[in-house]
Amino acid sequence: MRVRRRKDHLHGREAAEAAATAALKVAAEEVAKPPPDESAAAFFDVDNTMMAGASIFYFARGLAARDFFDSRDLLKFGWQHISYRVRGLEDPNGMRDAREAALAFVAGRNVTDIVRYGEEIYDERMAQQIYSGTHALAQQHLDAGQRVWLVTATPVELASIVARRLNLTGALGTVSEVADGCYTGRLVGEPLHGPAKGAAVQALAEREGLDLARCWAYSDSINDLPMLSLVGHPVAINPDPDLRAVARERGWLIKDFRTARKAARIGIPTAAGLGALGGGVAAGMALRRRYGGT
After folding, report:
1. Which residues are catalytically annotated?
2. What does the pLDDT look like over 113-142, one tens digit per residue?
3. Exposed, middle or buried by CB within 10 Å (0-12, 13-18, 19+), for 104?
């Protein structure tokens, strides 16, 4: 059984490179034969770009429905997730604390079981959240003979499920340490977020002979500026205010596929949704840091 070893005490550039290396190792197992247009590709963020809301949130709701968490665990992480979604800003300390606590929840869990749950939950909860406009953009790249990758802080297992369901090339996501087929509760490197995303895309381009000047990248978040700035064709999809400002300043294409209905659905949650929201962070950050996005 494959074992993914943790690199402890990595910071800054080293942490980003470790996350990128781990992501590429997993992605290497999924690469199909080269497409007709071998030097161009498109890179899509997942949360709020390909999908309305956070993929890990939907996954956690599905796990909660399967009694993966108890109500105390769900409520413990609920407020952090609500704060992130309402304010649209990440609190590094809060995100780190939620990640570390959530990783403990999946420690000892069998990877095969988690992937099976992920496939079921995608069909139950996530498929209907895919933005048809973003999906159509991805399909245009595929039709042009280009590779299309998801690049996300979401756990790589979950990100890979989304990629498979959408018939994309593959996914780069956050990688967790696995030993004897089970999660250890630790990461390999750091989450695939911010600079780590840029490092992963750069490494993938070098490995597959991509011309980044001919590549496209799509994201909703200013945190993905390192990835967007690498390619010749950056696109802001459903952008947050900071990314919208940067996109306008730099003359980048901006597309918004949000509707009033979906905006309401991913906005301030009702009291009845607090428990499920907590699950979104608990499983989400656990898996998200192990794999599959910011």
Report:
1. 45, 47
2. 989 999 999 999 999 999 999 999 999 999
3. middle
